[in-house]
Amino acid sequence: MLYDNHGRIINYVRLAVTDRCNLRCFYCMPEEGIDYIPRKELLSYEEMERVIALLASMGISKLRITGGEPFVRKGMLEFMQRLSEIEGIEQMHLTTNGTLTAGMVPELKRIGFKSINLSMDTLDKERFFQITRRDYFDTVWQTFEELVAGGITTKINAVVMEGKNIDDLIPMAELTKKYPVNVRFIEEMPFNGEGSHYPTLEWNSRKIVSYLKEHYPKLEKIPDPKHSTSANYKIPGYQGSIGVIAAFSRSFCGSCNRIRLTPQGMLKTCLYDNGVFNIKDFIRNGATDEELKGAFLSALGNRAKDGFEAERRRGFDRPVTESMSTIGG
Ligand code: SAM
Ligand code: SF4
User: How close is the Cα of 329 to the center of ligand 1, in Å?
Assistant: First the structure.
């Protein structure tokens, strides 16, 4: 078992396998995109497998593949298969934009993904184009239908943005009537390559819940899974559920069980930190497994109490502006 210096169990790693993406979501990167990391600076598949196997031997049992868009990296399915075979990895999860995933459901089931988070911020084709700056709504919707028909537990990630997709909140909540899915409304964070879009966050989790309650006075609070980042609700009689994620307000740090590996090989013990340890340089300089273990333990022994402390530790000269595709959301 792995614990941090605040006594929190650490059993979950989020692995961002690439910083590349075929969409340009408004909340994640500027229209012109970001400067991608040179290929040789990305962790190789072999390096990622080594690190994940080591973390699994230390107590990590849950793995999420994210990015960038995982499927823009060649050989991704085979890589995922190999990760799923690592001893100690009991749960595989995936976050994807669904543009390259249509038709892959049988393979994803075979790999054994416990659940898949599909990013879909709107049900309107035109608004999808405005938000993602690409015309892929029909493909993403097809992926959604295939995931549900294939019986894979599906969660929809929707970032809530004033002036962009507020008219979608109720239609998306309505999806839970017909489909047994969890629709998650996420507070927008400043991880977009430029910095905050707003002086203050208008659509915080409280406002999202109030808005939903206005439309669904009988909206019911349901228990949240252990270590959940979402507060969960249900509309009585509907098949699915609704989650609200206070990603910017950061009200869930007390039970945070996760760490992150960025595509460029930085360890992050908090989404809001600036990367606490450069794994890639360490292993490329010949670190042994024991040395690597020691470095992980030392980083976890100095973990920020919450996202606010992690942000303060960055210093004023390094504000939170990097694109989420370089972190893995
Ligand atoms: N490309 C994949 C996708 O979009 O699902 C995986 C990577 S993406 C960075 C992971 C998640 O981060 C997505 O669900 C996206 O909505 C979320 N995300 C990205 N930028 C965000 C931001 N600035 N605020 C809140 N969520 C964000
Ligand atoms: Fe790409 Fe995902 Fe970022 Fe959208 S949120 S630009 S799909 S990495």
Answer: 5
